[in-house]
Design goal:
By secondary structure, the chain is an all-alpha fold. Helices cover 81% and strands 0% of the residues. The two termini are 26 Å apart.
Length: 267
């Protein structure tokens, strides 16, 4: 039910957080102590284990929900973007995805450039994941006090502010602290956007809304390495972090203006 949706999505996202914590640690220490090829083999093991589990115990997965009510006339999934608040939620999810992708793509490059070892880089990234885990545990309580959209938009702005810190830091402990703060902002994005998109989608079309969210997020997976990698090649490290900060702060500001406009129209 709606009263448990944010909590359920938070619990789902906690699983991703645990994986995000363990992955960089395993990769970093494997690279430093047993080599790159062996690190890839170790990272392949969870995927192989998941495939075996699906074949062996695939019946444990929940079945599709039974359709209820009258089905609406089928239209293009892109028509859902005409719903203002749903479109804003999908865009907000994309902004969080940009921040997440840029950090995971660019921080290891930055860390290597300032002389950090692979294991230290892995530990710093794991502090990001630890913060994601922490904030997702706290989300259900936060939703009871503040609105989902409000939390999501302020989290995007908070992440934008934190991105400004990275080009001015080289100490691994300070970088870990900045990564933890960034994780607090980014960790809100996935469960909040999933919950909002589910609740804002028309009846019977929540899967299409979720599919649009995934499509836009994967579009950012394509664009971020190319766009920000080009910026870094031409202008250096600082403009990469600062330009991402500008994108996030601009998106947060636009979302808050849009929310106030929507509230006035409803009033």
């Amino acid at each position: 039910g709606p009263e448990h949706r944010a909590r359920n999505y938070s619990l789902l996202a906690v699983g991703f957080s645990i994986a995000s914590f363990l992955g960089p640690l395993i990769a970093g220490f494997s690279i430093d102590y047993i080599g790159y090829q062996e690190a890839y083999l170790m990272l392949a093991a969870p995927g192989i284990a998941a495939a075996i589990l699906l074949v062996w115990k695939g019946g444990l997965l929940p079945k599709a929900a039974v359709k209820t009510g009258d089905e609406q006339k089928k239209t293009s999934s892109l028509d859902l973007l005409r719903i203002g608040r749903l479109r804003d939620a999908i865009v907000a999810s994309g902004l969080i995805s940009i921040a997440w992708d840029l950090y995971l793509f660019y921080f290891p490059i930055y860390g290597h450039s300032i002389g950090l070892s692979a294991s230290v880089i892995g530990m710093v990234i794991s502090t990001f994941a630890a913060a994601v885990f922490t904030i997702r545990i706290a989300l259900p309580a936060m939703v009871k006090r503040w609105g989902e959209f409000e939390i999501l938009l302020y989290a995007i702005g908070f992440a934008g502010v934190v991105f400004v810190l990275f080009p001015f830091l080289q100490n691994p402990f300070l970088l870990a602290a900045a990564s933890f703060l960034l994780g607090l902002g980014c960790g809100v994005g996935q469960p909040m956007s999933m919950s909002l998109i589910y609740s804002l989608s028309p009846a019977g079309r929540s899967s299409e809304g979720a599919g649009l969210r995934v499509m836009f997020n994967h579009f950012t997976h394509l664009v971020v390495p190319i766009a920000f990698g080009g910026i870094g090649t031409v202008f250096g490290f600082a403009p990469v972090f600062l330009s991402c900060s500008a994108v996030l702060l601009g998106g947060s500001w636009y979302g808050q203006v849009s929310e106030r406009r929507t509230a006035r129209l409803r009033g």
